[in-house]
Amino acid sequence: MSTAIKEVVREKYGQAALRVHTGGSSCCGASPSSGCDDPISSKLYDAAQTGELPDTAVLASLGCGNPTALATLAPGETVLDLGSGGGIDVLLSARRVGPTGKAYGLDMTDEMLALAEENKKKSGLTNVEFLRGEIEHIPLPDSSVDVIISNCVINLSANKDRVLAEAFRVLKPGGRFAVSDVVTRGDIPEDVRANVLLWVGCLAGALEENEYRSKLQTAGFQNITVEPTRIYHIEDAREFLTGKGVDVDAIAPVVDGKFMAAFLRAEKPGGNCGGAPGCC
């Protein structure tokens, strides 16, 4: 990330982690007073998933999707969550890969890492490790991870090419990239795009879906798919945008339905995984 963006993101997510200790939620699209009933961060995880996790892991979720529900994980695999926050997706992944597998979480925010460590202890899981670092510089060896997940974090990076190159590097041959992220569809005026993305993704720098595909391909990935999971409509953002001085009715025709959360899948070529789920 550029220094300016990095510091803004670090401060925002640090504050979100601290709010959890006072019983507050950390919703991405919600205003501080509106709780978590917003169309971005709410209702992403079902009760069966959240019921087995510490409350503080659930409250700290800032995502736009649920990569653990869509990613194919098998017992014994190694999973890495980029921008792991309070650890919700890491803990869910750790349960799915079992005691013979491993789930790593990578985050650059000290407050989130401290919260994640607390949640790890509460969960009782022993196959979890949280790492301090940036998603542009993953502190793991080449070809060491079976699956990379992420929940609405890659859009925050100012150097997405570097993030995707690093993801490709640490994946084993045949490894899978399975992330939730904010994307856009089609041409959108830049001033309008900036205002809506501020609402959608907590300072998101979302890519147009075909540009995302192109960057994944340039990094070396194959079998790339983009699956919309939640499409945002102008009425969802009316209150926020009006407060920013935006004429919502004027921009509606060029905005409605063009911002979405999506699940992006891709694979690193090579490998022979004996027909394991998700293997090409």
Structural class: alpha/beta
Main β-sheet: number of strands, strand sense, barrel status? 8 strands, mixed
Order of helices and strands: HHHHEHEHEEHEHEHEHHE
Could you give the distance between the termini? 32 Å
Helix content: 25-40%
Q: Count the strands? A: 8
Provide mean pLDDT, rounded: 78
Number of helices: 11
How much of the sequence lies in strands comes to: 15-25%
Briefly note the CATH topology name. Answer: Rossmann fold
CATH class: Alpha Beta
**Low-confidence segments, ≥5 residues, pLDDT <50?**
25-37, 274-280
The assembly state of the depicted protein chains is single chain
Number of structurally distinct domains: 1
Radius of gyration: 18 Å
CATH architecture: 3-Layer(aba) Sandwich
Q: Let me know the CATH homologous superfamily.
A: Vaccinia Virus protein VP39
- Gross geometry: globular
